[in-house]
Amino acid sequence: MFEAHFQTFEEPESGVALTARLAVFREELARRKLTGFVIPRADQQQNEYVAPSEERLAWLTGFTGSAGMAVVLTHQAAVFVDGRYTLQAAKQVDRKAWQIAPLADPPPERWLEQNLSADDRLGFDPWLHTSAAAEKLALACAKAGAELVAVESNPLDAVWTERPAPPLGLVAIHGVQFSGEDAADKLARIQLEIARLGVEALVLSDSHAVAWTFNIRGADVSHTPLPLSYALVPREGRPTVFIDHRKLSNLTRDHLEQSADVHEPDALAPALTELARSGASIALDSVTAADALSRLIAAAGGKPVRGNDPVGLLKAVKNSTEIKGTRTAHQRDAVALARFLAWIDREAPSGALTEIDTVEALETFRRQTGALKDVSFPTIAGAGPNGAIVHYRVTRKSNRRIVPGDLLLIDSGAQYEDGTTDVTRTMAIGEPTAEMRDRFTRVLRGHIAIARAVFPDGTTGAQLDSFARQYLWQAGLDFEHGTGHGVGSYLSVHEGPARISKLGTTALKRGMILSNEPGYYKADAYGIRIENLELVVGADMADAEKPMNAFETLTLAPIDRRLIDLAALSAGELKWLNDYHARVSREVRPHLDDATKLWLDEATAALLPL
Q1: Which mean pLDDT values do the consecutive 10-residue runs of the chain (610 residues) have?
Q2: 130: closest CA among 214, 209, 69?
Q3: CATH, range 172-311
Q4: For FRET with 496, which of 117, 382, 432, 535 sits at 20 to 30 Å CA-CA?
Q5: pTM of the entire predicted model
Q6: Homologous superfamily of the 15-159 domain (CATH)
Q7: CATH architecture classification, 320-601
Q8: Domain ranges of the chain
């Protein structure tokens, strides 16, 4: 009945089976007179999702997480992962061949300082590291008396004999009915920012920025409609898009050529070299631009100017068309979610369902909208102890049966042409314990605190982050991820530069969309997360002395009333919850069948104060 088209559940290659690859790779390093090499989990543009041809870290080590790095030396090797992936790495990597070490504290550079020897030659691919990352590697090498060597071709690619071909996803036009602004107007705004930076040109090294600027979408990576590409935008005059021509139909080529020249990707280096020979200052995005670009510009006599890509902030502030589209997308998604949640309530108590069943069912309900383009990330469906793994991905091997007494955590999202969604709900299967209800209610109160927040224009996400944690902190509890990330408009579900996090230094502006997703995770027991997407809007405050902002909740899905400790909610929190559920019922109920309407009526019924 149900099936998943957009994600698989197969167990990736891992462990001892891959150790032979490490020996072959070391032989290649010796042939090139290198005593070590750094393998990041990255493509040329630091994308979150990378094409199969760029999964070098997974091919060599078996580790498939979205953040990590490996270092191979002559007699030892290490895989560096952050706290989200420690358990996963331990299962996927051969511990006899690889040491598993932290990605952040202490950083890999510290490991290099301790393990490199004088006169070692550590290689790296400058197309896979930003300049900031390359500088950290160079400093670590210098402290050890070693040399950092930028290679012209990646030695891992030389031994990866069955490496997949680079992707050739067809490019589609993202019409103005979705984008709300044509490319010419966007370019005029970008060129004003380039003039403000005082540079001659800007390199768009982030494919999201190219897609947004020129109103195109693609199919080169999973879950994000990216056309892998670059662009060079001068301060004045016509920009150039660098993209594989095999991805373009006559229609999409004509669309691009209305506002830009179109060249193959290998034309980027000559174009930058020619511009740099005049001594030009060229802006590069410090987050996504490869170190190779800085090296190329500097070698030709130009000045690479690293900083924040101005397109990132322009893209993050959605216009009225994009906002209308995301509201429509969320309402459509809410119908699929209501059908799914009703199905869970009906079927899960029997003990017959598995985590994979829930993933397949939710995608099927979304496909039945007739508008689903992809899931916006692989669905996290964690029952019982699996819910405590923040970035859990179910496989056929890990697939757990859902039984009464479990909490079921489902974090999922959809890509529609008019908007991107991301929602998490935690459901009680059978009777929850008092502890579960206490923890859930603390998470809910933090969620409501963000949803109800009113804050001055210019407030950053870091200033709001503790709102979500306060009730957990009161019980000596916390969660180890940010409270929220930015979300794109039929682009990345994880979009910068704004976020609600201890590290969120970008001011929240009206028109930005962010997630609100506090959680709590008890290892080997259960996980709780409640996530809605929020739109930053102006706050209606007649007596305010400065412009004030607030959040409009976009997500429309019931929050499990069975998990709420009603006595712990304030009158204001209870009012927010009842108002929210009344809105869910009002906007979603007319689009449901009779049976699901009855379920929704019960799931959204007002709670009365004790």
Answers
A1: 89 76 97 98 96 97 93 97 83 92 92 96 98 98 98 98 96 98 98 98 98 98 97 98 98 98 98 98 98 98 98 98 98 98 96 97 98 98 95 92 98 98 98 98 98 98 98 97 97 97 97 98 97 97 93 98 98 98 98 98 94
A2: 69
A3: 3.40.350.10
A4: 382
A5: 0.96
A6: Creatinase/prolidase N-terminal domain (3.40.350.10)
A7: Alpha-Beta Complex (3.90)
A8: 15-159, 172-311, 320-601
